[in-house]
Structures are given as C-alpha cells and as structure tokens.
Specification:
- By secondary structure, this protein is an all-alpha fold.
- The protein has a single domain (8-75), classed as 434 Repressor (Amino-terminal Domain) (Orthogonal Bundle), CATH 1.10.260.
- The chain has helices at 8-26, 31-38, 42-49, 57-67, 71-75.
Length: 76
C-alpha cells in the first residue's frame, strides 16, 4: 500500500502539464503531432497536460528535445 502523496505533488504535476501544453502550443504542434515526434499516443500527451498522469524523466527529455526547449522550462 502506498502512502498518500504530499499536497504539493498534484499541484506541481498540474504546473508541469501546463508547461508542456504551453511549450507545445508555442511550437505550433497538436498533441497528435507531439506524440508522433516522441513516439507516444496523443492520449498520453493529453493525460500529461491535464495532470492525470506524469511523464517520466525519459519522456520529459524527449518532449524538451522535440519542442526545442530546455528541460528546466518544462519543470520550473
């Protein structure tokens, strides 16, 4: 059984999702197009942007590369 997450974790997850969404939109890409660039389903992109799930470090690196933004910009 897992301990409940601290309250700040869901908040940070939402912030990261918004950063991904904003960077994707600034790059002029749809969720589908970003998903194709990083070999992930567009539904996965949607779940990240809506903070239903969180991307792992590898996914964050792929997103940063695909959007040509520093990794720090996605997790700030």
């Amino acid at each position: 059984m897992h301990d409940p997450l601290p309250d700040w974790v869901p908040h940070r997850r939402r912030q990261i999702g918004l950063q991904i969404r904003d960077a994707r939109r600034a790059a002029g890409l749809s969720q589908l197009a970003l998903g194709e660039r990083i070999n992930r389903d567009h539904k996965t992109i949607s779940r990240w942007e809506n903070a239903l799930t969180a991307p792992d470090l590898t996914d964050l690196l792929l997103i940063a590369d695909a959007l040509d933004v520093p990794l720090a910009d996605l997790v700030r």
